[in-house]
Design brief:
Layout (H helix, E strand, L loop, with lengths): L3 H5 L10 H4 L5 H11 L5 H14 L8 E10 L5 E9 L1 H10 L3 E4 L3 E2 L2 E4 L2 E4 L1 E10 L4 E10 H4 L2 E3 L6 E3 L1 H5 L1 H17 L1 H4 L5 H4 L4 E4 L14 H14 L1 H9 L3 H10 L3 H9 L6
Parallel strand pairs: 1-11
Antiparallel strand pairs: 1-2, 3-7, 4-7, 5-6, 7-8, 9-10
Length: about 280
């Protein structure tokens, strides 16, 4: 029988995870790591965006390949600005994606221009860097050189009183490191356009005021169908058995339940498929 003292010392029961967390198959340990260690203080919905981003890109969110960047987003229709959390890849994601192709051969030693004073900091005027990729069809090592000027990529802030424009805190602290990351990211996109697309990294967008966007109104989600939670548990169990079992269960499921899942959580089925493949615990 437990004594009064031992009961008092018992660990408190952990709070239940939100439904949108358990729906994705995120464990308590994963959620605590994401919200308390990797992205402390971040909006939980933004942390879920990170998870969904990693699932769609087949990345491990625990390795923090992307960042939550607060930015002023301009509505292309109205011209109005509003602050939103934007999930952006880090330089590590670019490196990981390039490495996965099996054709990435590294990059050259960065070269720098003379140190000059720009935006209140002493920094290299430019950085030049070349990424190498193996071309299996031609049987040659292809070179993708880039040349980046510090003043063109440096993130700045403007003093409200004096109007003076200066490099922001991060660029002031490590100007050469930030310049090098921007050059490397640009070179990786040159060498791997299909794999990386045209999205800039968080390092490149650090301190930028806004991005252009067309805000799309989300359609209302229908009420949760009867038996949905039990059905979702069954689907998750099938995902544990592999892709074939998941596909069979999904195709044999009620359309109303499938529609509710994809409407309430557009990335849910991709997460289930990732789990069936044994990727990123999704």
């Amino acid at each position: 029988m437990a004594t009064k003292d031992s009961t008092a010392l018992a660990a408190p029961k952990a709070p239940e995870l939100p439904e949108q967390v358990t729906r994705r198959g995120i464990t308590d340990a994963q959620w605590r790591t994401l919200t308390m260690n990797l992205f402390p203080g971040a909006n939980p919905n933004s942390v879920l965006l990170v998870w969904d981003y990693c699932v769609s890109r087949r990345l491990d969110p625990m390795k923090k390949p992307c960042h939550i960047v607060p930015m002023e987003v301009k509505d292309a229709k109205t011209g109005n600005y509003s602050w939103r959390d934007v999930v952006m890849p880090g330089i590590y994601e670019h490196r990981t994606t390039a490495q996965r192709t099996g054709e990435y051969l590294g990059h050259s030693v960065p070269e720098y221009g003379d140190d000059v004073e720009v935006f209140g900091v002493l920094a290299p005027e430019w950085c030049a860097l070349t990424v190498y990729r193996w071309n299996p069809k031609a049987g040659v090592k292809a070179e993708f050189p880039v040349f980046v000027r510090f003043e063109e990529v440096c993130a700045v802030t403007k003093d409200r009183k004096s109007g003076e424009v200066k490099a922001n805190a991060r660029w002031s602290k490590a100007p050469q490191q930030m310049l090098t990351k921007c050059a490397e990211a640009a070179a990786l996109r040159e060498a791997f356009p299909e794999e990386l697309g045209g999205e800039q990294t968080a390092e490149e967008m650090d301190g930028q005021r806004h991005i252009e966007a067309t805000v799309i109104e989300s359609k209302p989600v229908a009420p949760k169908p009867d038996g949905y939670d039990d059905w979702l548990d069954d689907i998750r169990a099938c995902a544990e058995e592999g892709e074939e079992a998941l596909t069979k269960a999904w195709e044999g499921s009620d359309v109303v339940r499938r529609t509710y899942l994809t409407d309430s959580d557009p990335n849910a089925f991709e997460a289930l498929k990732a789990r069936a493949r044994g990727e990123a615990q999704a």
